[in-house]
Amino acid sequence: MPALTGRALVAAMCLGQVGNLLPHVVVPAIMAQHLMPLWDLSAAQAGLMASAYAFGYMLAVPLLTTLTDRIDARRVLMVGSTSSGVATALFGLVADGLWSATLIWGLAGIGFAGAYMPGLKALADRLAGGDASRSITLYTGSFSIGVGLSFLVSQLVADGAGWRAAFYVTSAGPFIMVGVCLWLAQCKPAPAHCFELYGMRTWVVAFWTFVVAQSDDSAFVGPITVSVIVTLLSLPASVLGNEAALRFGRHRAITAVMVASAAIALAIGLNVGSSPLLLLALVLIYGFTIPADSGALTSGTTASATPAYRGATLALHSTVGFGLSALGGWGAGVALDAAGGPGQPAGWSALFALLAAGVLFGPIALRWSRQGHVIAS
């Protein structure tokens, strides 16, 4: 069986990643309408449950991604993808409350830790020499397609066949990547904004459910449509953000995106009681600005890493990112509860204010890293 190379390799890895992401947001997608009322969960408890995925990822990714510096990333990718699919199906089979759901969803996050960055490493190790920035950005950009499908499939299946069926159906996705791995050539390794993104992805369905409930049927679209559109905007945003970084410089482009994203978050928070049309426009713009820096950040990290330690570098990159992701989903739920809960405009204003504050730490970190680089050089 001939090994995948060139464009076929990039396309297959993007397809496999979409499959791996099919379970990715099934919990946030259905929790407001199904799990929270069923298990009588507060916003903070639901945020904790949804964030368990990112917590599990954060704990496992340093080991699993660094391991790809010692063994072929393809092997880690196959095991991680299989584990992700099995854990997702297990949620549908046995989860019956906050703690069992949180534990199993954390295990699913551990599985994804063996799939996402090891998948990026498997791709980077097999790309031809030269600037691989655009190929890597396509891989990271396909993240949005997978998450968009996850929102869409999860909600449609849960509404039509029950919430447990949503886990059974989405659990099949990661096995697409297992099939792709069988077509990858063996490769011996060389010797040796996420807080805001996941805060929004965890709560976008619940927020738009609130908007619809407050709108007296004047909302043009429902939560399913909004969550899918917002997520799919990530692909063009990531690609265009990376192109801007290549043209204007990474630090300048990423800083501009983060500041714009914080401004939009504040605008949403200040207008939660406004017309659904205005809120829809703001949410769609927000859906574009949040991930616009992701391709530039990930491709820049991959390109600048020493090849022999690329796995360890990506492990650190991903650990920090998903650590902030876990805090984003849970912290947003805490802010929502503290300001009155999901049924109160003040709660959503507090949530978006927290997300805006979180992303503004990004430009500070970039400035610090640039000064450190100048001092070190």
Provide the fold topology.
Elements: H1 6-20, H2 26-39, H3 43-67, H4 73-94, H5 98-113, H6 116-126, H7 133-161, H8 163-170, H9 174-181, H10 194-214, H11 223-232, H12 234-248, H13 250-270, H14 276-289, H15 294-304, H16 310-338, H17 345-359, H18 361-376
Can you offer a commentary on this structure?
It is a single chain. Helices cover 80% and strands 0% of the residues. It is mostly helical and 377 residues long. It has one domain (6-376): MFS general substrate transporter like domains (Growth Hormone, Chain: A, Up-down Bundle).
Q: What is this structure, in a nutshell?
A:
The protein is mainly alpha-helical and 377 residues long. The chain has helices spanning 6-20, 26-39, 43-67, 73-94, 98-113, 116-126, 133-161, 163-170, 174-181, 194-214, 223-232, 234-248, 250-270, 276-289, 294-304, 310-338, 345-359, 361-376. Helices cover 80% and strands 0% of the residues.
Keywords:
single chain, 377 residues, mainly alpha, Growth Hormone, Chain: A, 80% helix, 0% strand, globular
Named CATH architecture: Up-down Bundle
CATH fold name, please?
Growth Hormone, Chain: A
The tally of domains stands at 1
Overall pLDDT metric: 84
Total DSSP helices:
18
In CATH terms, the superfamily is: MFS general substrate transporter like domains
Which structural class do you get from the secondary structure elements?
mainly alpha
Radius of gyration: 20 Å
- Estimated share of beta-strand residues: under 5%
Low-confidence stretches: 373-377
Share of residues in helices: over 70%
Return the string of H and E elements: HHHHHHHHHHHHHHHHHH
> What is the number of beta strands?
0
Which CATH first-tier class would you pick? Mainly Alpha
Q: What distance lies between the first and last C-alpha atoms, to the nearest angstrom? A: 48 Å
What does the largest sheet look like? none
Principal-axis shape: globular
